[in-house]
Specification:
The structure is a single chain. By secondary structure, the protein is an alpha/beta fold. It has one domain: Rossmann fold. It is 59% helix and 12% strand. Strands 3-2-1-4-5 form a five-stranded parallel beta sheet. α7 links the parallel β4 and β5. α1 crosses α2, α1 runs parallel beside α3 and α5 packs across α6. The radius of gyration is 14 Å and the shape is globular.
Length: 124
Amino acid sequence: MYLLDSNILIEYLNGSKKEIDFITNAKKNNEFLSFSVISKIEALSLSGLKEESVQDIENFLNVFSESYLNDDVATLSARLRRNLKLSLGDAIILATAISGRVTLVTNDKTLIKKAKNLVEILSL
């Protein structure tokens, strides 16, 4: 079970082979793939994104399970943000992975360093 960080989704959308291969193989193997609602916001608000691309991104995201914010994730996000000095987005994504007990797939080296003892992490 995997939670895909925003950078993984965005790199997939940009045509990065590593991310495409990982997601394609995971889907073939019926792996559970999800993303945080914050990743949806980040993917749909990319600089220079044309309106006609929005529907394509939404269709792509519909292939995965979306993890929404709840009170537990919000509380944990706030604590992680305070204690680890994370951005709001990274805190929400990390809290979502921790509370969902899933592997966080990210290429964010700073997040990996801060989160490595809190959740299983896979870097592509």
